[in-house]
């Protein structure tokens, strides 16, 4: 595959994809989490490998089978994802943050299981902000020309929120999709618009997550600087 239809257009590239959803531990048996299945990130990893890239897939708590031909790094929390993706990004040509990273974590981790006390109301749960990994990656690129791509899930005013988010994150492309109770999370299909810092706006019609993944790699490939020998 490629613009001219010849050869794998991502050959010679190292790409890093994050997938799934982080779990923020509260005690040894409990966590705060989200409903991300990992399907979009795994589709991105598979399609990049099929197009010739070396792929590192940083997977947060996905139950999906390990994709063939991909370096898989399993993580749990946002902090673990940050460490893994930052290490993998050091020599990457592109980083695609498809994972749903928890915005907050429990402010304190209890090393023993939290017990209820007879006749007492529960304590309110104190939360702390997690680092914005995408914004950090975009602000501190270890290689010139490295492309950083984010995903945004929005429930309303999707384009308006997407544009603001693209600017706030400082990434090159933002894939914006609309989510709701039964939309997108865990489903096989996706509908999105990919916003670029260059002002581009690429609508991706409702269809399989593979099709969105291919469009994302098309947009990345056409923005890559040339390969040096
Ligand atoms: N992201 C991240 N680190 C975080 C939160 C989000 O790297 N702590 C990344 C996600 O992987 C995604 C992008 O940022 O690629 C957008 O995530 P989203 O939750 O839509 O954005 P937020 O900035 O967290 O905004 P919101 O308040 O709408 O959740
Ligand atoms: Ca968020």
From TrEMBL:
GO terms for molecular function: FMN binding; metal ion binding; phosphopantothenate--cysteine ligase activity; phosphopantothenoylcysteine decarboxylase activity. Its EC number is 4.1.1.36, 6.3.2.5. Its cofactor is FMN; Mg(2+). Binds 1 FMN per subunit. Residues 15-229 are annotated as: Phosphopantothenate--cysteine ligase. In the C-terminal section; belongs to the PPC synthetase family. In the N-terminal section; belongs to the HFCD (homo-oligomeric flavin containing Cys decarboxylase) superfamily. This is Coenzyme A biosynthesis bifunctional protein CoaBC. The chain holds residues 188 to 416 of 417 of the full protein.
């Amino acid at each position: 595959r490629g613009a001219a239809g010849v050869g794998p257009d991502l050959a010679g590239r190292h790409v890093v994809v994050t997938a799934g959803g982080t779990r923020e531990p509260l005690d040894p048996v409990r966590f705060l989490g989200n409903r991300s299945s990992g399907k979009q990130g795994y589709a991105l990893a598979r399609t990049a490998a099929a197009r010739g890239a070396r792929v590192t897939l940083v997977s947060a708590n996905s139950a999906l089978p390990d994709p063939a031909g991909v370096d898989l790094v399993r993580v749990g929390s946002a902090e673990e994802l940050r460490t893994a993706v930052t290490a993998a990004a050091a020599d990457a040509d592109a980083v695609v943050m498809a994972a749903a990273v928890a915005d907050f974590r429990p402010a304190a981790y209890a090393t023993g299981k939290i017990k209820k006390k007879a006749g007492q109301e529960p304590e309110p749960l104190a939360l702390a902000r997690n680092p914005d990994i995408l914004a950090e990656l975009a602000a501190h690129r270890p290689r010139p020309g490295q492309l950083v791509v984010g995903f945004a899930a929005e429930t309303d005013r999707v384009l308006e929120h997407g544009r603001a988010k693209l600017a706030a994150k400082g990434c090159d492309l933002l894939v914006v999709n609309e989510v709701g109770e039964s939309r997108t999370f865990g489903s096989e299909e996706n509908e999105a618009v990919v916003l670029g810092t260059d002002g581009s706006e690429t609508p991706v019609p409702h269809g399989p997550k593979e099709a969105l993944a291919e469009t994302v790699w098309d947009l990345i490939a056409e923005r890559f600087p040339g390969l040096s020998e």
